[in-house]
């Protein structure tokens, strides 16, 4: 059975710091090996994206592909703290509204909507990040935003793949992005979850 899977997110979804293309491309290549259960996997991750940016392209990306499954891996950039703003990049209440809007749009295409939880960071390297010192990523904020995603999934009876316990400091390239080992761990968790729930 052919199935189209759209996977949305930011640089972790896109596959930064992994020469195998990140967890999404690993999933795509794994599913391509089964000609009897063919799936078209689209990596729709954009570096630096947040729920604000995703909303601007979400409907169109889905309209042109008509997915049977939508996977959303977003929130890490939303959770970042901006020193100049004295607050999170996307405030938690706005983040919640954005997620609800994304779910509403996704349901126009499919009922198979899955959220991937946020991954932990290594605070000592990401508070602030050296490439943009106005931005800080901390596990405290990551937990708040991850809990909000999980809460919304429970309220809307959507599937949620927990990632918060998965990656250790040695699985991170720069304290924020997974290295190849980290992406491999994410791939296996997503693959096993999708197979367990008979989504692939």
List the helices and strands and how they pair.
Blueprint: E1 3-9, H1 11-14, H2 22-32, E2 39-45, H3 51-63, E3 69-73, H4 76-79, E4 81-82, E5 87-88, H5 92-106, E6 113-116, H6 123-126, E7 135-136, H7 139-155, E8 159-161, H8 180-196
Parallel strand pairs: 1-2, 1-3, 3-6, 6-8
Antiparallel strand pairs: 4-5, 4-7
Helix pairs in contact: 2-8, 3-5, 5-7
Q: What do you see in this structure?
A:
This protein is α/β, with parallel strands linked by helices. It has a single domain (3-196), classed as 3-Layer(aba) Sandwich (Rossmann fold). Helix content is 42%, strand content 16%. The protein is built from eight helices and eight strands, in the order βααβαβαββαβαβαβα. It has helices at residues 11-14, 22-32, 51-63, 76-79, 92-106, 123-126, 139-155, 180-196, and strands at 3-9, 39-45, 69-73, 81-82, 87-88, 113-116, 135-136, 159-161. A hairpin with a 4-residue loop joins strand 4 and strand 5 (87-88). The relative contact order is 0.17. The mean pLDDT is 96.
